[in-house]
Design brief:
Layout: E1 4-9, H1 14-23, E2 27-33, H2 37-46, E3 51-53, H3 56-60, E4 67-70, H4 77-86, E5 90-93, H5 101-113, E6 119-121, H6 129-139, E7 146-154, H7 159-163, H8 174-190, E8 194-202, E9 216-223, E10 228-234, E11 242-249, E12 253-256, E13 261-264, E14 274-276, H9 289-297, H10 306-325, E15 329-330
Parallel strand pairs: 1-2, 1-4, 2-3, 4-5, 5-6, 7-10
Antiparallel strand pairs: 7-11, 8-9, 8-15, 9-10, 11-12, 12-13, 13-14
Length: about 325
């Protein structure tokens, strides 16, 4: 098979995508795009072999690109994904894929009418050694039957709502913009399907910022086997950026702590938990790209397949519908 040619839209986190492509087999980064002239100048110096575009549509129309990484602002993702598909390009997108139900439908329709292309997304917590270790323990039955889980996305970077592009997007969603990571993590760890969500939010921390939507959202999830879960997207917390995870099983309980993780095997306070020191987060934002390239080339599988990312997006969109309308939302009716 010929070498694949890649383009990258957005040179913030998109720079990590460049490095991800360079770690993959038989792919060359040939084109870059960013609206910011300073970033363009930086990229011309660091990546002189790449064509440079100012407008994403021009890169997406380039017939000499096979796969594109989309790392633009959240509200541009959906339209760029659809255009990439209709240009015959595979897509590795930053999260979230989109911001609304109708955009998700448009992405699915574009994927359907272009059956040769592939799609994946950068919910990269799946690559964390600590969470991969945890998943192995769950699959081996070490925790018993899972019955409740908590996953909190503690962003701890409130200033980004005031000073960055997030605060400039009407109806910006902290669940889609950040909480999506822990939603995907919970689905992946549990291997279960969410059937109903109920959510609420507030914007106490960002009061006076001019930010129009909640900076804190909490959701209760009901799974198809009776398991329950709670996820939060907490952008205003006075707390380091961290993914708090608690997984309760009938045989053991896992807790992710800042210093290390713990596995509790006893209800007795005097019995200490096992300490788990596998690296956390231990990831780079381009780590999912080599596997995605292998999947395109037919020599492996993407860590996050299309059905995985659609399931995660449907849960996040249902959460946003629930807090907006103050109603429980059953999956399939979001």
């Amino acid at each position: 098979m010929q070498r694949l040619r890649a383009g990258v839209i957005g040179l913030g986190v998109g720079e990590r995508h460049i490095h991800g492509f360079r770690r993959a087999a038989a792919v060359d980064v040939v084109a870059l795009c960013d609206m910011d002239l300073q970033k363009q100048s930086m990229a011309r110096e660091k990546y002189p072999e790449c064509r440079m575009y100012t407008h994403a549509d021009d890169l997406l129309a380039d017939p000499e690109i096979d796969v594109v990484a989309i790392a633009s602002y959240d509200h541009h993702h959906a339209a760029q994904i659809v255009k990439a598909f209709d240009s015959g390009k595979h897509v590795f997108s930053e999260k979230p894929l989109c911001l609304r139900d109708e955009e998700l439908r448009a992405i699915k329709e574009a994927l359907s009418r272009n059956p040769g292309v592939r799609l994946s997304t950068n919910t990269v917590l799946r690559m964390s050694p600590r969470f991969r270790d945890l998943r192995g323990r769950i699959q081996n039955g070490e925790l018993g039957r899972l019955y409740y889980a908590e996953a909190d996305y503690n962003y701890g970077r409130l200033f980004k709502l005031r000073e960055g592009w997030r605060g400039q997007i009407p109806d910006y969603s902290v669940m889609l913009g950040g909480g999506v990571h822990v939603v995907d993590l919970m689905l992946w760890l549990s291997g279960r399907r969410v059937v109903e969500v109920i959510a609420s939010g507030n914007k106490i921390c960002s009061a006076g910022y001019g930010f129009s939507t909640p900076d804190m959202v909490v959701a209760i999830l009901r799974f198809d086997d009776g398991m329950l879960g709670k996820v939060t997207a907490n952008f205003g917390c006075v707390y380091p950026h961290f993914h708090k995870v608690l997984i309760y099983g009938t045989e053991a309980t896992f807790e992710n702590g800042i210093e290390s993780a713990s596995l509790f095997r006893s209800r007795d306070r005097d019995v200490p938990p096992d300490r788990i020191d596998t690296p956390y987060p231990g990831i780079d934002k381009g780590d999912l790209i080599p596997g995605f390239i292998d999947a395109i080339r037919g020599i492996g599988h993407a860590e996050i397949e299309e059905e995985d990312l659609f399931a995660t997006m449907e849960v996040c969109l249902a959460i946003d519908k629930s807090w907006r309308e103050d109603v429980p939302v059953r999956l399939g009716s979001a």
